[in-house]
Amino acid sequence: MDADHETGPGPESGAHRAPRSRTRAAERWRAFTASPFLPAVVLMFILAAAAGLFAGSYTYNMANPTPRRIPAAVVGPTDTAEARAFVGGMEKALAASLELHPYPTDAAARRAVEQQEVFAILTFRPTGVDFAVAGAAGASVAQVLTETAAAVSRAVGVPVRISDVKPLQKGDPRGLALFYISLAAVIVGFVGAIQLSVHARGLDPGERIAFTVAYSLLGAFAIASVVDWLLGALRLPFAESWLILAFTMFTSGMVFTMFNTLMGRWAMLPTWGLMVLLGNPSSGGAVSWPLLPSVLGHIGRWLPPGASVNAQHTAVYFGNAQHVFPFAVLAGWALVSCCVFWFWRHRHPGGRTAEDT
Fold first, then answer.
1. Is the pLDDT of residue 1 over 50?
2. Which pLDDT tens digit goes with each residue over 278-318?
3. pLDDT tens profile 237-280
4. Which of 302, 280, 298 is nearest to 290 (CA)?
5. Residue closest to 62 by CA, chosen among 54, 70, 74
6. Own/partner long-range contacts of 4-8 (Cβ < 8 Å, ≥24 apart)
7. Which residues fall within 8 angstroms of residue 150, CB to CB, at 6 or more apart?
8. Model confidence over 161-180: pLDDT tens digits?
9. Cβ contacts of residue 297 below 8 Å, gap of 6+?
10. Which of these, 58, 84, 180, 197, has the minimum number of CB atoms within 10 Å of its CB?
């Protein structure tokens, strides 16, 4: 065959093919990023990570609660052999420190319980130890202390009489009802804000805040009335509990609105992380703060879920000793969220345009 008639790929065909394949790949990537498939794929991985983190955060905080530091009132002499043996046995069994606060009388120690300064009262008498827990101050702590005190009494040979000077209500034997109603207020609070952003997108800033107040008041009333009047699970100081729940829902809704202003459609990520992954497990509602990992026990007090549980718990069980701190925490988060939303409202994806009015 004549060489002049031979056919085959020219020397530049491979070089031409590579740029064309890169061009096609770039075009496909541009088409993918412009399609709804990119956010769908991103959401797929985010939801998978959120599911794992959600399970992990609750399991880490609640699966194996361990006491770190438990404040306890002491009445009577602590320098006797029986007292030293019992206290030492308790600290060894708990692998923690009993933070003992001496009080001159039983009445003074009871006042400390009412102020939620201590979780138990140890009264040392010649015949043994009176060990009084306060179930309403923390059901999980009371359970740990009760079981440990009985075991230590047998081990060191010191008689102990165990009682509960502040029991939980009969309809809430494990002390979880307050955690659940606060959890409902937190979740419905930001879900309500999400729904406003989807179905009432045209609301102006003032209107959006007003409707957040409205659904918070109505939703909180529904929660309190179902738990108290319909189910009878808790006897609530109704007006105070209702307003605490409403304050919680409003704060939660405005936290989402703030993040929606700053981050747009990805606002759910920081909201969920702050309020659910971090806030609810560290709130002290399901597991009392002395049994949580120490860092989370401190952080939880400064987040809206923890402030809500704290205020609600005091209102129901320690009504004469309500503290300002949890309300200040809720007010701080609500104020910051409202200010961020108001001053950067032009960045919020909602609101009416001139053509809409």
1. no
2. 898 888 887 777 777 667 778 889 999 999 999 999 999 99
3. 999 999 999 999 999 999 999 999 999 888 999 999 999 988 98
4. 298
5. 54
6. none
7. 160, 162
8. 999 999 999 888 788 899 99
9. 68, 282, 284, 289, 290
10. 84
Per-residue exposure over 254-287, b if at least 16 CB sit within 10 Å of its own CB, e if not: bbbbbbbbeeeeebbeebbbbbbbbbbbbbbbbb
For position 354, what pLDDT does the model report? 46
Q: Specify the range with the lowest mean pLDDT, choosing from 53-62, 278-287, 344-353.
A: 53-62
